[in-house]
């Protein structure tokens, strides 16, 4: 595997517009060699355009694209050492699996004996040896996905680009393919840039995640960093399941709490750099709310809904006109029923405070 210090990929202030639509806007990030780097965000934020720019399929209007220290911004596709797997698989339907694998090597005029060796090695790695004579149309969705992957891997790319590769698979296959991709990443030490709108995919696979919005990047970090210290309300709302509870109100004069519909929420410590009476939002994860213990004072609430999820239950409670969600062990939630009165405790040490005007975190 490459040394973490080696930069495999660097995009600096990359911009791309299609008429009046800005697909990429001042996009900058670095990917260290051997990393599994995820571009995460809903559709139309620029994930696919970013991958196509790295691959050389799209020429940026401005900015710079470097691959292993060399400027490829205006260079042709060939020679980049980059391979891309598309969401649609893009297999040749009239060719066998063997010939789909072999095609890129035939184009590169690799000797026939070397092609055969690499095809069989790739098929073994992806557990596709029995399917080599079959055509893509006779394969399952998961098998077609593995063929698309194999056709990219057989070229021995230094960087593998994956554009929402699991979107067309059912839930069980997606789970299996996530594990398969992580195994291949470890086995080859590949540098992977993976685009997905799926939060579970991003958090379970990404060593580093770039949260995208409007053609730019809002925050880059490890899954833990994005979960623990979201930079703004957008990231806070995108990372974590169930999603963070957001409580709107105004800051107390001494910066020591939030006045809101459910009452006064005291902070664990005073905020600096915030104005008294400023509109603010307190975010708290469902896992940081619990039922009050015997004799413990808490927030008066009423049970609104129970969502059992096996060993945990998501419990929605209503308090002061707001609905809050908390996550409880199934054993603690089994005695609860909708309509029942409850007392809940919010952990002030776990509050995230954001400016209502800009959405930025107040630290």
TrEMBL record:
<dbReference type="GO" id="GO:0016887">
    <property type="term" value="F:ATP hydrolysis activity"/>
</dbReference>
<dbReference type="InterPro" id="IPR013611">
    <property type="entry name" value="Transp-assoc_OB_typ2"/>
</dbReference>
<keyword id="KW-1003">Cell membrane</keyword>
<keyword id="KW-0547">Nucleotide-binding</keyword>
<keyword id="KW-0472">Membrane</keyword>
<dbReference type="InterPro" id="IPR003593">
    <property type="entry name" value="AAA+_ATPase"/>
</dbReference>
<dbReference type="InterPro" id="IPR017871">
    <property type="entry name" value="ABC_transporter-like_CS"/>
</dbReference>
<dbReference type="GO" id="GO:0140359">
    <property type="term" value="F:ABC-type transporter activity"/>
</dbReference>
<dbReference type="InterPro" id="IPR047641">
    <property type="entry name" value="ABC_transpr_MalK/UgpC-like"/>
</dbReference>
<keyword id="KW-0813">Transport</keyword>
<dbReference type="Pfam" id="PF00005">
    <property type="entry name" value="ABC_tran"/>
</dbReference>
<keyword id="KW-0067">ATP-binding</keyword>
<feature type="domain" description="ABC transporter">
    <location>
        <begin position="9"/>
        <end position="239"/>
    </location>
</feature>
<dbReference type="InterPro" id="IPR027417">
    <property type="entry name" value="P-loop_NTPase"/>
</dbReference>
<dbReference type="GO" id="GO:0005524">
    <property type="term" value="F:ATP binding"/>
</dbReference>
<dbReference type="InterPro" id="IPR008995">
    <property type="entry name" value="Mo/tungstate-bd_C_term_dom"/>
</dbReference>
<comment type="similarity">
    <text>Belongs to the ABC transporter superfamily.</text>
</comment>
<dbReference type="Pfam" id="PF08402">
    <property type="entry name" value="TOBE_2"/>
</dbReference>
<protein>
    <submittedName>
        <fullName>Carbohydrate ABC transporter ATP-binding protein, CUT1 family</fullName>
    </submittedName>
</protein>
<dbReference type="InterPro" id="IPR003439">
    <property type="entry name" value="ABC_transporter-like_ATP-bd"/>
</dbReference>
<keyword id="KW-1278">Translocase</keyword>
<dbReference type="GO" id="GO:0055052">
    <property type="term" value="C:ATP-binding cassette (ABC) transporter complex, substrate-binding subunit-containing"/>
</dbReference>
<dbReference type="InterPro" id="IPR012340">
    <property type="entry name" value="NA-bd_OB-fold"/>
</dbReference>
